[in-house]
Amino acid sequence: MADMDNLAIDRSNLPRLRPGVPRSGAGPVRFSLDEVPARDRLAVYRDFFGRSVCRFEIDPLDGIRFDVDVMLHSLPGLQLFTGKVQGARCGRPPSLLGDGTDGLALVVNLAGPYLASQLGKEFVLDDGEATLVSEADPFFLTHHPPGGLLVLRVPRALLAPLVTRPEDRILNRIPSETSALRLLRSYVALAWSEPGIEDQAIRQSVATHLHELLALAVGAAPDSEAAAIGRGMRAARLHAIKKDIAENLNQASLSVAEIARRHACTPRFVQRLFEAEGTTLTEYVLDQRLARAHRLLTDPRRAGEKIGAIALDAGFSDLSYFNRAFRRRFGDTPSGVRAEATKMRS
Description:
This protein is 40% helix and 20% strand.
């Protein structure tokens, strides 16, 4: 079953957002009710999150434990929200309309079921499915355990030019196997994990790619679809491929053909993705393997392991080739780098 952890986002080091405590910085934050007594949870969530963050009304579900543990992050023209909300019915009734909120929100069910209701439509989102919601019209989402979700909130004026008749896309079911939706879920992790995400140019680039993937998922306009495929889809594919490489560096058989097979594309497409970055997949994999070997050789917990075992763990099946490549990259032998690291620690 899908869950919020399959977005590969580490929540442990995120600053906590607490009621009554001013937020510091502009980075991602975590909001959880685990420190709030059960009897006070609904009131805290209503007062703090429902009224000041999303302008939602929240009602508990009978017989289901109410719990919230979510992460929030803002990028240019985009608010990201992912985590767990269970045991509640959240939404915007007519009484909350007219407050200037006029955005569109893509709601992705990571682990449900979720009951979505708007404009006379109502259906249950299964795991991995998504739908587009209008925040300018009454809607409700009913969260059942385990309550995993991902929401991308975008100003209507920003998304409207990218989508063919966005008013016709409201509360349409988007299947979980939709390619753009799957890539969007993978790419969302960049908003939290990309090392340079505090850089404004990178923040804008990530936001633009997410806007384009969102538009493709719900139905991009013909004149914007080619651009979206050219930028957002390629960026998301490259991110997914790099993530795949990082998770499988120890496989000596990692190749362009294998990567292409796993990501349902051609080897030439994979090659072009890396060529656009001024490298090749082979060069990128070698660079990542050498970097991993260096980290392992300088890790005191691995000090007793043979260098051959370290090489294998980094994906090198030929020890002689590993030694030559390592020396070209770092200007020293693997044993020399390990000895220097040991000397520095003593």
